[in-house]
Amino acid sequence: MASIPVLLLVLVFLLSVDYANAQTNHSNNISLGSSLSTDANRTSWLSPSRHFAFGFYPHGDGFAIGIWLINQTEKTVTWTAKRDDPLVSSNATLELTRDGLQLRVGAVKNITYIDRAPLRKTASAAMLDSGNFVLYNNLSVVLWQTFEKPTDTILGGQNLSNGDLMVSSVSKSDQTKGQFSLLMQTDGNLAAYLVNSSDAPSSNSFWSSGTDNSGTDVMLTLNASGVLFLHGDRLGVRILASSHYPDKKNVTIIHRATLDADGIFRLYSHHFESDNSSSMVVEWSSLANQCEVSGFCGWSSYCSGVGSNNGPCKCYPGFHFINSSNKFLGCYRNFSDNGCRRSGPPAMLSRIVSLENILWGDYPYSSVQMKKNDCNISCLEDCNCAVALYGRGSCDKYKLPLRYSRASKNISATAFIKVIWKNITSPSIPFHSETVGPKIERGLILILAITLGSISCLCFMFAIYTIFRYKHQVYKYRSLSENTNLGLIEEFTLRSFSYNELEQATDGFKEELGKGTFGVVYKGTIPGTVGDERTAGYFYLAPEWKLNAFISIKADIYSFGIVLLEIVCCRRSIEVNVPTTDEIILSSWVYDCFMAGELEKLVEDENVDFVTLERMVKVGLWCIQEDPALRPLMKNAILMLEGTMDVPVPPSPVRSLVVS
User: Fold this and answer.
1) Whole-structure pTM over 0.70, yes or no?
2) What is the pLDDT of residue 56?
3) Alpha-carbon torsion 45, 50, 52, 58, what sign?
4) What tens digit of pLDDT does each residue of 359-406 get?
5) 3-class SS at 451?
6) Separation of alpha carbons 622 and 221, rounded Å
7) Does domain 495-642 have CATH number 1.10.510.10?
8) Which terminal residue of the chain has fewer beta carbons within 10 Å of its beta carbon, N or C?
């Protein structure tokens, strides 16, 4: 406990020194009305030491507004205003007004380009030797400063407060926002993330200071001596890095901490000699290898850092770079697997290429314990599997795209990548010479020609067979029609009855046998067509007939629904010779199977599309509802069968009628 006051004293001393350095050296004040222009010789305002400059700097085809460190060979940009705004054209002017800095393009005056000073109180501005650009009021009180709005860099005397973040640049020459961020979290932890990641921050951080749960007042500070540290009431002082170069006479050392374009947070020192020479030294890096940065290489590519700290990005076998000149953008698969499900077994179209010592950070859609060779086969036979990762007895299968991939000798895992036969270009598979390619092509053409010829012959023979069979059936039907024996005709054709005939045959609908969704079943007899023989008959009527209700066009939907269910199940609406009594009445049995999720019983061992089967069953059940109001129109029934209209879950057809 006694060490805490000592640390706090050290902290106060460090902060006081940095604050003094940051707020001095503004004697060369910039007065109101001063301006910079992209066309004139004066494009920037220099600090007293002439190490920093604020103003326009070339960026692409235009200009950007920012602060840069003036080196002997190049400019090191430390702050940029409105990083993602359009570039400034060549006829722009930046003027200091009472509202702050205003940008004019030609004769048009736009709003303040950087944050406006409150209440029009700007009196002057200054570019300090600390690298901070400030706006003052008439009492020399700071109204606004760039140190409060860091981009990708903090300088000596600058803080990264709780809740603030820095965002990397795209590259050294492009200061627009990149893909990595460094956040001073509200729990006291300093963490680096991949920008715009869909993962939660806790699972996506690829580097952190390990100071979580240290309080909400923790901030990051870089002092003028090159000490980079975290500090807070509960945390005390946690030094992350410090400069290894002591102050020397006639040598000016300027320190900066930058979240670089590769996602690594680094501490730099710039040494300016008295002879105007300068040099730069990397004092510290948050990560030793770029491959440890999540997202350093784009999607579906991997960072190969084996034996190299630069970690070049590579594509998986069967993949190509999106942009060969910028390999950090990722890769895409140079073939389509859309035919996997409809072109036969996947193993006939694809094969597996293995890569050792590789890992990625996505979540698998399937993870099963199995042997290594079984994992290979499982991915090959799975249309959803693009790659599989085997390690520690677990087979993890993934879909594309793959993220956060890296290779390392310290990773003991094997990746199985699925590629089609023609697109394999991997070191583990020998590359075919140019003389082999034409032979393979000729072989494929020959196989395709033989296959297509055989199919054409079979189709021709089948067409001839169908024509002869059709003519034979027509001849049999004509012969049957010419036969005067109506008893046989009744076995093959349907006979229509009038209502009076049915009423007489059933003795006024006297004996009711049962009820189904198609209507009520009555027992009746009709005279035979030959002699006095009588035949027992079973009929069904819609509920409207029994209730003497209004007969609408919905009555025809009944017949359509029953016929539809009979077609689906390949049986009549009433069957006596069935295994169980539940199957006698077709409509009741179909509804029971539908509610139990056992539609396969309706088609037995036939190979059908169960999505289409379920849709047809639901349409049929809607059509045979006892309540006519619940039955769909024929137009809607057709649309539901075509799949262009959703089919809701039908109620029980028998219980749908409510009689008031």
Assistant:
1) no
2) 92
3) positive
4) 887 889 999 999 999 999 999 888 889 999 999 899 999 998 888 888
5) helix
6) 72
7) yes
8) C
